[in-house]
Amino acid sequence: MFLRLNMAKRVLCRLGQWCSRVFAVECEPNSDPVYFGLSKNPQASLSGEQQTFEKIFGGAKSYSLHICTDDRFQRAMRYEDLKNNLISALPRGSLLDVFSFLPDVKNSLFRGFLIKDAEAIPMFHELVMGSWVNVCTYVQEEDGQWWQHLWSKSEDATEVLVDKYCLVPARMPQYHPSTLNIMGNDVFYSFGDAHKVMEKSVEIIPETKELLELVDQNLTLKRNGQFPVIVIEGLDATGKTTLTRSLTAELSAALLGSPPQCLSPWRQRFDSEPALLRRAFYAMGNYVTASQIAVASQHSPVVVDRYWHSTAAYAIATAVAGKVSNLPGPGSEVYRWPSDLLRPDLVLLLTVSPEERLRRLSGRGVEKTREEAELEANHLFRTKVEQAYKRVEDPACVVVDASPPPDQVLQQVLLLIRDKCHL
What percent of the chain has pLDDT over 70? Predict the structure, then answer.
């Protein structure tokens, strides 16, 4: 009994403001989440509220699992492990996303999952009852009230009921909860912050040490060159490759890209890692590209195939669940340019219609990252990426219609460059 109480006290200490948290369940990808809070005391509930909770939990015993640790590296790794284990154990479509957060408090988001009839999963309790995951069950009592039971695991492997809370409706927050953890988890705003995550990844990817040595030996955070730097951005099949090559020849420029070629031996490995590691890798790629720009711009104009706008746009669109309107609004600090990253003189965003993109993509047969594949299959995701591109500030993108023939697009871009960069 002493062991059980001791563990329960530690869980309560770790939870801190658990009862002050709001929970959001994503029932449908294109609709608003269902929000609820917690109370120690039962409250009179309306029939509509009961129906809402029944919609979430149904008749079967439901569980929610929340990855609860302030260590962002451990949080990312454990979330990915839990997700993969649950997907392999559960029937398709039975796993819902659930968020636990403190309203308007940055980095307070705990991501998790809601599962119905979780007792049917083989080895379920061994899978989830760890010190880093909060396990909650949801039950409706005879008076119609819905309750959340918070469980822990004692040192003698016995399940302990830590506390119970009555579910109460909660207001929809001003911003979707998935936006709370973007800064420093999905998008990096300094070299040092991305470097810390890469250092941690050495624990699971030993070859990262070689990557960091290469980065540290070649990094410069200062711009030395006087020639202009032009970045070409856009979704796949918008004509970036054709335009960058034509511009390079027309301007006698150096052609660079992000991530740079020197990081290609590690790219496939990091593309398969959890989002935090993947984002840190691409952030490091931007800083290596910046170092190459600083050298190349001493001798000629520089054309860059993708840069920080791509890194940020894809990360934000992936991190933010649900509708386009869930994205942080224009002017949000998540769109600000990193203060220690070399700024280009001009950023051009190439756009074409979705139909034209598909026509150009057909027959390419090139290997895609998971996000590029998602981009082709998911109109909602594609729209979120495009909106995030357009909201990045200082420098903002100049949108270019890339639907005309390549030579016409080139002439249009050359006029912009001569106007903005005085070439």
Answer: 83
Structure tokens at 120: 């049917």
Query: CA-based angle 261:264:266, to the nearest 5?
Result: 150
Tokens of 190: 């300094």
Non-local (6+) Cβ contacts of 164 within 8 A are 147, 148, 149, 150
pLDDT for the residue 321:
86
3-class state of residue 266 by DSSP = helix
Whole-number Cα distances in Å, 116 to 55, 57, 347: 11, 7, 47
Tokens of 213: 């040595």
The whole-angstrom separation of Cα 87 and Cα 83 is 6
Which phi and psi (to 5°) does residue 4 adopt?
-65, -45
The answer on pLDDT for 325 being more than 80 is: yes
d(CA 273, CA 260): 19
Residue 20: count of CB within 10 angstroms of its CB: 12
Q: Both tokens of residue 137? A: 């069950």
Considering only 124-133, 196-205, 364-373, which range has the smallest mean pLDDT?
364-373
Tell me, rounded to whole angstroms, the distance of Cα 318 from its chain centroid.
5
Range 241-246 contact pairs with CB under 8 angstroms and sequence separation of 24 or more: 241/305, 242/406, 243/350, 243/402, 243/406, 243/409, 243/410, 243/413, 244/303, 244/304, 244/305, 246/406, 246/410
Residue 192: what pLDDT?
Answer: 94
- Contact (CB, 8 A) for 223 and 273: no
Name the token pair of 196: 């810390």
Q: Are 349 and 231 in contact (CB under 8 A)?
A: no
* Those residues with Cβ within 8 angstroms of residue 296's Cβ, 6 or more apart along the chain or in another chain: 225, 254, 256, 302
Are the C-beta atoms of residues 239 and 271 closer than 8 Å to each other? no
Q: Residue 126: CB partners within 8 Å, gap ≥ 6?
A: none
Q: How far apart are CA 121 and CA 201, in angstroms?
A: 31
Give the residue, 92 or 101, on which the prediction is more confident.
Answer: 101
User: Is the pLDDT reported for residue 163 higher than 70?
Assistant: yes
Q: How far apart are CA 108 and CA 219, in angstroms?
A: 33
For the residues 84-110, what does the mean pLDDT come to? 86
Q: Which residue has the tokens 């609820």?
A: 36
pLDDT at 252 over 70: yes
Q: Read off the pLDDT of residues 49-72 as tens digits, 9 standing for 90 and up.
A: 677 787 788 766 788 888 888 889
